[in-house]
Amino acid sequence: MSDYVFLIVGIGCAAFGGELFVRGAVGTALALRIAPAIIGVTVAAFATSSPELSVAISSGLAGRSQISMGDALGSNIVNIALILGIALIISDISVASGTIRRDISAAVLIPLLTGFFLLDGNLSRLDGMLMLCMFIAWLTAAVLEAARQRNSSESGSGGTSVLSSALFAIGGLVLLVISGRLIVSGATAIARAFGLDEFIIGATVVALGTSMPELASLVFARLRGHDEIGLGTILGSNIFNGLFILSVAAILSPARPPLPEVLPALAFGLLSVLIALPWRNSGRIRRVQGVFLLLLYFLYLVTAVLLRP
C-alpha cells in the first residue's frame, strides 16, 4: 500500500511543484529583466537533472559509471522523444532564435561528441575533463546572454518581487525533484510486484520517473503560455545530462560501456533532436513532429528490448 501512496503523493508533488515553479520562474525573469528561457535552461535544468547527478556520483564512486551513462542517455531520449512529443501533440511550440543557436545546436553536438570519445571503447578521465570544459563554455554563453538581455532592458517588471518569485520557483523545484524520487520508488516497487523484468522497469518506469520534473514543468509552462520555460528546461536538462553528468561520472571512474548498447542510445538521442528541429524560416516545432517523436520513443523501447543481453 505504501508504494501506491508514494506514487500518488509523487504525482501530486509534480502537479503542485510544476505550477509553483512556472509561476516563480516567470516572476523572477521579469523582475531580473531576463528571458524566462534562460531560467529554464540553467537553474531549472540543473535542478531537474539532480536525480541523474546523484546516480552519477554514487555509481562513479562505486566504479560503475556505465550505470550513470545509461541513465543520462536514456533520460535524454525520454526528454525529447516522449516528453516534448507529448507537449507537441497539444499544439506547435515557438522557438526563439537564441535557443536554436545556443541550446539546440549543443543538443545536436552532444551525442556526436560522446560517440567520438567512445571510439576507443572507453570514456576516460581526459574525455570527462574535455566534456566538462565544453559544459562550462556553454553555461558561460548562457550567463552572458542573460547579462546582455538584462543590460539592454530599460526597466524592470514594475514591482515584481524577486524574493517572493524566487521562493516560489525554488519551492516548485524542490517539489519537482521530490516527485521524481517518489514516483520512481513507488512505481518500481509496483512493477516488480507484477513480475515485470528489471530491464523493462529501468527502460520505462525509472526513466520516466527521473524525467517527471521535466514533464511537469513543460506541461504547466504550456498551460500558462510560457513555452520558452518548458522547452528551455528540456534542452538544458539534456545538455546537463550529456556534458556535465557524463563528465562527472567519467572523472570519478572511467567507463567502458558495451558499444552495442550505447550506440543505439546515442543514435536515437541524436535522431530525436534532429526530428525536433524547428522548421526552416518558421521558428516553430510542429505538431506532426510530436507524432514522429512519440513513434521514435516506442521504436527505441522495442530496440532496447530486442538488443538486451
Describe it.
The chain has 309 residues and is mainly α. 82% of the residues lie in helices and 1% in strands. It has one domain: A middle domain of Talin 1, CATH 1.20.1420. Helix 5 (97-117) packs parallel to helix 10 (227-252). One of its GO terms (molecular function) is calcium, potassium:sodium antiporter activity. Residues 4-142, 165-305 form the Sodium/calcium exchanger membrane region domain. It is found in: Membrane. Keywords: Membrane, Transmembrane, Transmembrane helix.
Summarize the SSE layout with pairings.
Layout lengths: L1 H31 L3 H13 L1 H12 L3 H26 L2 E2 L2 H21 L7 H28 L9 H32 L4 H13 L1 H12 L3 H26 L6 H17 L8 E2 L1 H21 L2
Antiparallel strand pairs: 1-2
Share of residues in helices: over 70%
- The pLDDT mean sits at 78
Q: Which overall shape is indicated by the principal axes computed on the Cα atoms?
A: globular
- CATH superfamily membership, which one? NCX, central ion-binding region
What is the name of the CATH architecture?
A: Up-down Bundle
Unreliably modeled segments? 154-159
Q: Based on DSSP secondary structure assignment, what is the total number of beta strands? A: 2
What is the count of helical runs?
A: 12
What letter string, H or E per element, gives the SSE order?
HHHHEHHHHHHHEH
What would the CATH topology be?
A: A middle domain of Talin 1
Helix and strand content put the structural class at: mainly alpha
Rg, Cα atoms, Å: 19 Å
For the record, the count of structural domains works out to 1
Q: Summarize the biggest pleated sheet.
A: 2 strands, antiparallel
Q: Write down the CATH class.
A: Mainly Alpha
Protein name: Na+/Ca+ antiporter, CaCA family
Keywords: Membrane, Transmembrane, Transmembrane helix
Membrane topology: Multi-pass membrane protein
InterPro entries: K/Na/Ca-exchanger, NaCa_Exmemb, NCX_ion-bd_dom_sf
